[in-house]
Amino acid sequence: MDYVLVFRPEVRDELDEAYSWYENQQAGLGDEFLECVDDILNRICQIPESYAVVYNDIRRAILQRFPYAVYYRIVSSRIIVIAIFHGRRNPAIWQKRN
Question: Domain range holding 39?
Answer without folding.
Answer: 4-95
